[in-house]
């Protein structure tokens, strides 16, 4: 393309000169401004407009090779995903040149995992490119080479008619640097850029390959795809799950998250009132005498240091500082109605280190599974009595 461009510009100049031949008042300036229109788009902020543009790639200074639309989408997606993180790596050596039609060339160093526009002063991280590029697949289309796809490591393959149109659907859970779920010709990212040997982030650690700890199941009675993965965190092992449906040719994720906020804190009576949207349930958590005394002392010390407006902000922060983590998930018919419920055991904790209350409570959430939603029907704490105990016993 490097060689073609000068010809394109030359043609444009020639074209302008011919058109202007009749207009004897034409100046060099007019010609220059015509050429300026051909300026290539550059800059990270303009990259998302590159969608549906043709992409050609030169690898190790070889000739430019066209890419399939899917290949171009995946490369663009990776560039955009990383485009806010400036890289500290150098901008001299590169292995790839990406050329989106109409755009300035983009150089990629696969080893250092960074990219930059030609003539730009800044480079950006391109985490995951080494693993993804390792998997490129070239095919020959009408005697031309085309970068077509990336090699998939298939974790689960299911063939079933999950949208009831009478045609079998091809369902794949696969890994190719991302963990992805595809149904027929559409796909979603379940977990981006997870790397070969790790999955997750923050204080979650995973001991296995994604291929060993991620699973996909088809719950036929509900036409739901259940994705799960097992990992470990600083608090111990956990299971994370997600639900997907395939409707009208698109993959939709069913929301089942429950969040928790503190409604009121009554230190005199030792009661913290919790609210669980979107279930709209409230729950009163009783503090021990020792917790009450400690919280009162902590709060008294803080009150001395804060004026009224600081106090208001602080109180608001404390109320939103609850973290609900899910550690284990099982399916059980816990109410004996002959349908399975999803039962999740987790922890409710204060994540705001300077909050004057401490919450660290095991919790069980019960979800009813419906074809179009996964709805939280019950919430239990460990000290809720025999009914809660038998739920916690599932996880022992
Ligand atoms: Ca089907
Ligand atoms: Ca049941």
TrEMBL record:
Name of this protein: Uncharacterized protein
Signal peptide boundaries: 1-21
Keywords assigned by UniProt, alphabetized: Signal
Origin superkingdom: Bacteria
């Amino acid at each position: 393309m490097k060689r073609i461009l000068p010809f394109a510009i030359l043609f444009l100049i020639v074209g302008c000169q011919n058109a202007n031949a009749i207009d004897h008042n034409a100046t060099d300036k007019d010609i220059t401004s015509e050429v300026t229109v051909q300026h290539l788009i550059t800059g990270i902020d303009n990259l998302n407009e590159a969608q549906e543009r043709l992409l050609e790639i030169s690898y190790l200074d070889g000739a430019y090779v066209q890419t399939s639309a899917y290949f171009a989408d995946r490369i663009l997606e990776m560039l955009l995903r990383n485009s806010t993180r400036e890289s500290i790596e150098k901008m001299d050596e590169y292995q790839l040149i990406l050329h989106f039609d109409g755009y300035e060339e983009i150089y990629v160093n696969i080893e250092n995992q960074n990219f930059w526009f030609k003539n730009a002063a800044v480079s950006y991280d391109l985490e995951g490119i080494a693993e993804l590029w390792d998997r490129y697949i070239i095919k020959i289309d009408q005697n031309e080479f085309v970068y077509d796809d990336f090699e998939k490591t298939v974790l689960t393959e299911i063939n079933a008619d999950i949208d009831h149109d009478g045609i079998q659907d091809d369902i794949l859970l696969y890994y190719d640097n991302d963990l992805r779920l595809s149904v027929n010709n559409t796909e979603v990212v379940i977990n981006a850029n997870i790397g070969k040997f790790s999955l997750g982030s923050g204080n979650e650690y995973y001991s296995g390959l994604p291929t060993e700890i991620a699973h996909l199941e088809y719950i036929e009675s509900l036409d739901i795809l259940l994705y799960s993965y097992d990992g470990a965190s600083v608090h111990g092992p956990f299971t994370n799950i997600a639900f997907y449906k395939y409707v009208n040719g698109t993959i939709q994720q069913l929301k089942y998250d429950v969040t928790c906020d503190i409604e009121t804190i009554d230190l005199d009576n030792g009661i913290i009132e919790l609210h669980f949207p979107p279930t709209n349930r409230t729950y009163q958590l009783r503090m021990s005498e020792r917790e009450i005394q400690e919280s009162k002392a902590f709060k008294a010390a803080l009150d001395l240091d804060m004026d009224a407006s600081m106090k208001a902000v602080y109180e608001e922060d404390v109320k939103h500082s609850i973290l609900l983590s899910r550690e284990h998930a099982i399916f059980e018919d816990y109410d004996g109605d002959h349908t399975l419920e999803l039962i999740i055991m987790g922890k409710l904790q204060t994540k705001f280190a300077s909050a004057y209350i401490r919450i660290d409570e095991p919790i069980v959430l019960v979800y009813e599974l419906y074809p179009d939603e996964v709805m939280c029907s019950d919430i239990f704490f460990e000290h809720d009595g025999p009914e809660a105990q038998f739920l916690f016993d599932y996880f022992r």
